[in-house]
Amino acid sequence: MSLSVSEIRTRLTGALDAMPASAEELRELDAALGDGDLGVTVKAGSLAAAEAIARLPPDAALGDVLIAMGKAFSTANPSTFGALVGGGLLAAAKTVAGAHAAGRAEALAMGRAVAARIAERGKTQLGDKTVLDALVPSLDTLEGSDSGDERALLDAMIDTAERQVRATAALQSRKGRAAWVQERSIGHADPGATAWLRFLQAWRG
Known about the structure:
By secondary structure, the protein is an all-alpha fold. The chain is 68% helix and 3% strand. It has nine helices and two strands. Helix 5 packs across helix 6 and helix 6 runs antiparallel to helix 7 (132-144).
């Protein structure tokens, strides 16, 4: 399983262009826990990231693609989630600097870098009811699978993310505005974790 930068750019653009369809769902989830701006952040950030990819030269390396995406996502609609995702993408870019193709190992390295940066900058960990609660377990699934088929790997990652999103509903939020509502956060799925699930589904197509 290996994709060229050109193939990755096409797949990313398709996935990012599909993300605004989830904006209202994410807004509603976030409104139950915080200020309800996540839908706007994801929609604006995704479209800006797609535009940034389109502006890159044809010979851009994968790291350049991630840097452009990270900067665009974080500035399109300034928010905590936007800053965390943007910073994560910039960290991921360092793992594939100069690369013009990526396979499973590179995908895992990029994902781990994103998760580590989000954990560091957000001062959060698994169980805090954040995007990490779906992101990290889905990466564990990618790492632990012995399948070489991209579709099978994606399906497995999506299955894991779906289970984890459902599981976040039982958790009390510990970070961000969602932490302010304390016990009232229980019973609602985490919007950030849901956004990661929707991205995986959009990438699968």
